[in-house]
Amino acid sequence: MDFDLMIASLPKLLSAAVITLKLLSASLIIGLCIGFLFAVLRLNKKPFINKFAYGYSYLFRGTPLLVQIFIIYYGLGQIEWLRSTFLWVILKEPYWCAIIAFALNTGAYTSEILRSAFQTIKPGIIEAGKSLGISSKIILYKIQIPVAIRQSLPAYGNEIILMMKGTSLASTVTLMDITGVAKHIVSTTYKPLEVFLLAGGIYLFMTFIIHNLIKYLEKKYSFQ
Amino acid sequence: MDLLSFGKTGWGDELFYATLMTIAVAVTAMLIGFLFSLIFTPLKLSNNKFLNFIGNTYTTVIRGVPELLVIYLFFFGGSGAIMYVASIFGYFEYIEINAFITGSVAIGIISGAYSTEVFRGAIQSIDKGQFEAAKVLGVSKFVQFYKIILPQMLRLAIPNLSNVWQITLKDTSLISVTGLVEIMRQSYIAAGSTRDPLFFYCFAAVLYLMLTFLSMKLINRLEVKYSRGF
């Protein structure tokens, strides 16, 4: 074990962790909006609308994230007319391509989590609201949404951790996140064990923080 | 459609073999994962604190670290580690491990962590009375496990194992970074030589969708089989 190398590469990996966190937070915020939208579409009674939402989540959950990134980063650049629109400003950057892919991917999983949370709300709660004469709009905002958020917290926590691990794929489209930097250091020092173990340690630490944060939120918003 | 024709001009046959490779890696990894969960599930359920710690460390570490990093560690660090062990036994030649084996073992270890959690959950949700009844009837531990616990556990575990299978199948795409020619790698090669990445990556996505769809159909049948009598 080359401990000097480990100490020397720690600052580089930590500054790369900032990029990982940026990718993660951007894709989670966009993904949450997409997930919420598609969860609502899934619960819509019109078959065309909920089939469409189901198709979206099936497509993104049934294919590997790597394929999704490659289609967006390498594939979309091939379409001529896309290159002439303003979208190209975004799509030529690997950073934004990675965020788009991650957001669409986590959006699909989030929509499933939120949908099942909405579906498992006990009808009694809604009926209680109705019998108290509360309007259906307020029932949605003050009863259904808070209960659904509470119920989906454990599953969403898992999704955050899965997404954090997913950001390592950004290194395949030339981004220098933790995995990208670790691989770069290995390619110059030929010490894979030390560097990858250190990078793994940083990821593990981030998982630990997220896990405890979610646990704290679960406790804070529990019904007892 | 010319791009997908079989033979020298198209990529149909190459992609077909690549799909078989993906299936082979996924199945091997899943089996290696079962082997790992066979070792680690009893550790996680054990009352011994030390054994418990080992079991928990395995599942926590593997599930907390990106799959890609595990694959890099195995691919770049694997041969070095094996050569180090070999040097202790007095063998100093260069040892190169096959990409299929490194890839399957790396994905297998990841899949094992997930299936260990599934088996632990399934065993824990079996009624305690079942264990006690077996004990009272004087059934040996071995028969107790194979005839009483395992059939009930499988019924509970299959839906979750099907999730683990999906994860494993999708994780095989990451092995493409090691150069093993599976769906993703083959699409990369084809995209590079035809300059048509959009078509080939979309086709790869279709292949993965087909694999996940077909395996779901198969697993649903298993589920029905093991739910008989419930």
What would you note in describing this structure?
The complex is a heterodimer of chains A (224) and B (230). Chain A is mostly helical and 224 residues long. Chain A has one domain (3-220): MetI-like fold (Orthogonal Bundle), CATH 1.10.3720. In chain A, 83% of the residues lie in helices and 0% in strands. In chain A, helix 1 crosses helix 6 and helix 9 packs antiparallel against helix 10. The radius of gyration of chain A is 21 Å and the shape is flat. Chain A binds chain B through residues 58-59, 62-68, 70-71, 74-76, 78-79, 161, 164-169, 171-172, 179, 182-183, 186, 192-193, 196-197, 199-200, 203-204, 207-208, and chain B through 60-61, 63-70, 72-73, 76-77, 80-81, 166, 170-174, 176-177, 184, 187-188, 191, 195-198, 201-202, 204-205, 208-209, 212-213.
Characteristic key phrases:
heterodimer; A: 224 residues; mainly alpha; MetI-like fold; 10 helices; B: 230 residues
Radius of gyration of chain B: 21 Å
Largest sheet of chain A: none
CATH homologous superfamily of chain A, by name? MetI-like
- Overall mean confidence score, pLDDT of chain B: 89
Radius of gyration of chain A, in angstroms, nearest whole number: 21 Å
What is the overall pLDDT average of chain A? Answer: 91
Poorly predicted runs of 5 or more residues of chain A: none
**Beta-strand share of residues of chain A:** under 5%
* H/E series of chain B: HHHHHHHH
Number of helices in the DSSP assignment of chain A: 10
User: Number of folding domains of chain A?
Assistant: 1
